Amino acid sequence: MGSLYRIEDVDFHYGGRSVLSIPEFTLNPGSILGVVGPNGSGKSTLLRLLAFMADPAQGKIFFKGVDGRKITLQQRRNITILPQEPYLLKRDVYENIIYGLKIRGDRQNLNSRVTKVLDLVGLPEQFAKRSWRELSGGEVQRVALAARLILRPEVLILDEPTASVDVSSAQSIMEAVLYARHRWGTTVLIASHDHGWLEQVCDQQIMLLRGRLLDEEVVNMIPGPWMEQADCGRVIKRYPGGEIITLSMQGYNGQDSVALLPAESLSIQIGGHKGINSDSNISADNILPGRITALRESRRKEIFIVEVVAAGSLFRLRTTANRIEIEGLFPGRRVKVILNCEHVRWL
Ligand code: ADP
Predict the structure, then answer these.
(1) Residue with the nearest Cα to atom 27 of ligand 1?
(2) Which protein residues touch ligand 1 with a CB less than 6 Å away?
(3) Backbone angles phi, psi at 23, to 5 degrees
(4) CA geometry: angle at 36 spanning 14 and 210, to 5°?
(5) Please, are residues 45 and 151 in contact by the beta-carbon 8 Å criterion?
(6) Is 193 helix (H, G, I), strand (E, B) or coil?
(7) Is 216:205 a contact under the CB 8 Å cutoff?
(8) 119 CA → ligand 1 middle, Å
């Protein structure tokens, strides 16, 4: 299978400052890719480049093997982006939804197609008559998404689609995304802070950090707030369930810092003994009871990623097929996640 996108040595600048630098990345058609990372890490910039709304300062982005600078208008029209704050025409919902079709000169069966996409985003047929003025934030997102879905895009790019919507809108957006991939083979790229939502919809996630791509499979992000214990050079996070994490303050920059822990600094305890990646240098605080939610094959041969939800957060660890068998690791199994606090990086 040929790749849909290939990024080679891409660099993007704002005012001479590099905000995105990606040596290599490929994406297969039909993927649903999540892009995560803190504010300002370059997610929107990456999405705009993949929508060919801007050109990289250096490097190339290939779409189906064609250099992005040479793709045709026709190909570009197969890629549609829903920005974080979508703009609606000051007209009714119907006019907004058919706008893209109209500019493509496609006027066939408009009524039934509008009804279909409204249904896909969980809105009733009568909604077509609503004025743009009468929509809530979640409805604006859904109408704007319907206006993209009616085009049956080859690539659908969503920038923070659930940022300002309620739970039922987030669910409708998820279902519409899965439908588009299933029925039309649409490839979907989604930047979001909504980790739980992304987990349910994406089959692959990448993480951006200050414009650099990290392998999301192997980095755990632990957000603050943190309490400082300057006398012993440590910071503490207390989870609502009473669990406590204590980390080294080295490189820490404020109570809202995000701690990054590589998969190697986490291990699993099963029963009374240490499990994978065991390390004897661990403070008693950093033990979080949880449950294995998934075992995934890594892109690296023979290596598996164990996902554990503990203290309401998702943690990722690395292991081998052999250890999965010996330790009896399986989804649903209760385990303890042990954090080795010495390998923290702060963001
Ligand atoms: P994210 O989507 O992860 O929040 P962005 O891609 O929006 O990140 O931004 C990446 C970096 O580029 C940030 O440092 C941001 O301040 C900067 N940036 C984004 N848009 C502009 C712009 N129009 N002019 C100058 N700098 C920008």
Answers:
(1) 14
(2) 14-15, 19, 37, 39-45
(3) -65, -40
(4) 35
(5) no
(6) coil
(7) yes
(8) 35
- Cis preceding linkage at 56, omega within 30: no
Q: Which of 93, 187, 107, 99 is nearest to 141 (CA)?
A: 93
Q: What is the dihedral of CA 75, 203, 263, 268, to 10 degrees?
A: 180
Count of all residues that appear for the chain in the document = 347
Instruction: State the burial class of residue 252 (Cβ atoms within 10 Å of its Cβ: 0-12, 13-18, 19+).
Output: buried
DSSP 205-239: EEEEETTEEE-GGGEEEE----EEEGGGTEEEEE-
Q: Which amino acid is at 7?
A: I
* pTM score of the predicted model: 0.74
Residue with token string 């504010």: 39
Tokens of 231: 């006398």
Q: What is the chain's pLDDT, residue by residue, as a tens digit (347 residues)?
A: 689 999 999 999 999 899 999 999 999 999 999 998 888 999 999 999 999 999 999 999 999 999 999 999 999 999 999 999 999 999 999 999 999 999 999 999 999 999 999 999 999 999 999 999 999 989 999 999 999 999 999 999 999 999 988 889 999 999 999 999 999 999 999 999 887 788 788 888 888 888 988 765 567 888 888 999 988 889 999 998 889 999 988 888 888 788 888 888 899 988 654 444 444 444 468 999 999 998 877 656 678 889 899 988 889 898 998 999 998 999 999 999 999 877 788 87
Q: Is 135 helix (H, G, I), strand (E, B) or coil?
A: coil
From atom 11 of ligand 1, which residue's Cα is the shortest distance away? 40
